[in-house]
Design goal:
- 2 copies of one chain form a homodimer.
- By secondary structure, the first copy, chain A, is an alpha/beta fold.
- Chain A folds into 2 domains: 161 residues, MoaB/Mog-like domain (Molybdenum Cofactor Biosythetic Enzyme, Chain A, 3-Layer(aba) Sandwich); 65 residues, Ribosomal protein S10 (Alpha-Beta Plaits).
- Helices cover 40% and strands 26% of the residues of chain A.
- Chain A contains 9 helices and 11 strands.
- In chain A, the strands form 3 sheets. The first copy, chain A, has a 6-stranded mixed beta sheet, sandwiched between helices. In chain A, strands 9-11-10 form a 3-stranded antiparallel beta sheet.
- In chain A, strand 10 and strand 11 form a beta hairpin.
- The longest helix of chain A has 14 residues.
- The first copy, chain A, starts with a strand and ends with a helix.
Chain lengths: 240, 240
């Protein structure tokens, strides 16, 4: 049986302007791979309501899961929760369960739960809260969309809250063979190998270190024995 | 007049599996911002022909420029050039001008221009070559799509070859004000400021350093004087 599929939607002007380098995509990709969920596509869009809604709808229809990152804080440019609600045709307002979490948190820290912070309790009807052990303000899951914060520490904690409850498939395994040859010298052999081991994916990533050309060949699949067989064959072909 | 818009398409299983952390998106974002071209959307897709073709068509129709990264090397998983040709309905084969570049390069380095390497001379009819001063194998521009390599050094060199010829708009300028206050304490003021300065975008990026909560407020726009005015107002509001 094929693994479940996933897409990610990263929301934020600061990524697209080059001010901030996104770290969440790379983290999520690694976690999903370990969990046996195949990340198929990533989109990065601005803090712009039509762009967010269009992307969420498109990705939600074509993948088993969608993970979003960014735009759920207390400021005016945090519009993700309302956009997701609209994409699902769900009513959204400050919800009592989320408000109770924030009240307890700000009571303890002696800060005011003002109108801006209360926006972080806006949760669509029917959504399940995602636990945020770092800074309390929750994410949420509605339909097949998991809505999470952009701050990497919080995003990572939310992924840890969400992933164990999702049915994974077979983890994607991989092995890497480093060859000190130009990519063009090994391409024909790789092509034959890829045709024979068509249940695996075989990638080739060239590098250049101190003027020496080489390539890392990465063999991926869900069956360890098959990966072993492909790597063994490859090593033999190149007399390693 | 509004700035030209751009989208980026990153192609590669290795990014989506979490093996490799993409570096090209962040680089391109910064370069486009300096050049006055607005990066509106990024998509990352697998080495999978239908995914590449669908994304290229969609992005090419909705943006002034599309920049792609990855999948133009000599191995079997390098399918980008053929996919782009199909997306444009263009014929593709080894082209004499690209072949001549590769012949000269491999003659000089004493390596064989074998069938695999010759694949890097597959260029669609009507495309203009993009210079690659790092490793010779060219990228190309067809229609409004600029097809470039995934290896960061090569990608960066190709961007430097392409960008000067593109008409830019007004560079996006920005100033950052660091406030040692929780995001929730400044959100209301930022919201008023954003409404008043509606020609600027005002972003708020929270941080936590040694237990102190703070936020960087980033004001972006094309008119330096307006950004100055917004930052001055903000500093006054918070008595900095």
């Amino acid at each position: 049986m094929a693994n479940p599929t996933a897409a990610m939607l990263v929301i934020g002007d600061e990524i697209l302007s080059g001010r901030t380098r996104d770290a969440n995509m790379h983290f999520l990709a690694g976690e999903l791979t370990k969990h046996g969920i195949d990340l198929i596509e990533v989109r990065i869009v601005r803090d712009h309501a039509p762009a967010i809604e269009t992307a969420v709808r498109a990705l939600s229809e074509t993948h088993d899961h969608v993970f979003t990152s960014g735009g759920i804080g207390p400021t005016h440019d945090d519009i993700t929760a309302d956009c997701i609600a609209r994409a699902f045709g769900a009513h959204i307002d400050v919800r009592d369960d989320a408000r109770a979490l924030l009240e307890a948190h700000y009571d303890k820290s002696g800060q005011e739960l003002n109108a801006a912070r209360l926006r972080m309790a806006r949760i669509p009807d029917g959504a399940a809260l995602i636990d945020n052990p770092v800074s309390t303000a929750p994410g949420f899951t509605i339909g097949n969309v998991h809505v999470m914060a952009g701050v990497p520490l919080v995003f990572q904690a939310m992924v840890a809250s969400v992933l164990p409850a999702l049915t994974g498939g077979r983890p994607l395994l991989s092995q890497t063979l480093r060859l000190n040859r130009g990519e063009g010298d090994i391409a024909a052999t790789l092509s034959e190998l890829a045709a024979e081991f068509d249940d695996l994916t075989i990638g080739c990533y060239p590098f250049q270190t101190n003027g020496v050309f080489g390539a890392n060949v990465v063999v991926r699949g869900t069956e360890g024995a098959r990966i072993d067989a492909a790597i063994t064959r490859l090593a033999k072909e190149f007399e390693i």
